[in-house]
Amino acid sequence: MDVISARDGYIDRTHSRILIIGFSVAFLILLTGMAATLGSYPISVLDVYTIILTGPDGASEAGTIIWDYRLPRILMGILAGAALGLAGAVMQGILRNPLASPFTLGIASAASFGASLAIVLGAGVVAGGSLIVGNAFLFTLIAAALVYGLARYKGVTPETMIMAGIAIMYLFSALTSFLQYIGSSEDVHAVVFWMFGSLGRSTWETVTVAAVLIGCTFPLFLISARSLNTLAAGDEAATSLGVPVERLRIGGMAGASLLTAGVICFTGTIGFIGLVAPHITRMVIGGDHRFLLPGTAVVGALVLLGADSIGRTIMAPQILPVGIMTAFLGVPFFILLFLRRGRNYW
Predict the structure, then answer these.
(1) What is the pTM of this model?
(2) Which of 20, 36, 163, 187 is deepest in the core (most CB within 10 A)?
(3) Where does the pLDDT of residue 75 fall: very low under 50, low under 70, confident under 90, or very high at 90 and above?
(4) Domains contained in the chain, CATH given
């Protein structure tokens, strides 16, 4: 009877987790329609869904506004939130640290330096309008490689990767500050605005790149979900059960870094999503990565799209950068989390 009741309890928990994720997706669809109504041109939610379902219509002014201006921004918000949430959940899983994220491990600082280098000195690996994007993407990957290299020298453990990430974060932060010091006031203003994070530069091309990156990495993360669950018991226990711990950490770090690079090179630095989304999801549906990863992707999309929608309305017609809004939303959440959570996390 105990075995049967345990099995029934597991089935019930699985069903409830699937339902929660399903309701979250439905709420995301609703929020998408509401976000598409925001702007100087009035469009109802019903009209938004009708325009989206009927496809692009160049003859309709409302259709042009939705498909050419509002929908790319909304979809980029959804994809960026999902990518950053996934990256944070994977990094927290492979490092067994609730504060691990692309931003606490120096990846975002490297992207800021790459963008600053392009803005202040005009130096980079590509030319033309893609200079800032190319620099941010390249230096994000360089930071990930440096973290791995430093950790590899002392052994790829959670402690060494976190310490290496902190060192890289301070290094690129110092380099960015130096560029701001020597740059002109116009260049410094451009750097600061880029570091705020914004979805205003979104196009169908950027949406496509982000969608391809998520489509390539998300299935690989799901395949590794059981290994991430086992890793939560510790390196020795995971190794004894046949989990290639070091390879899992390297692959997880590479995938999370690629996701982060593919998003923030277009949007600028958007903080707290990689920290907040995994925590919210873990509190609601638990720490099983088979459900945590897709749940975190949906929650990250909800948080970022919601923050951008608030930023577009709170001081309308002026639009607050979404990076500022996520910080405003993230700090109170973490204070609440600090006050309510017990000593043990995993």
Answers:
(1) 0.90
(2) 36
(3) very high
(4) 13-340 (1.10.3470.10)
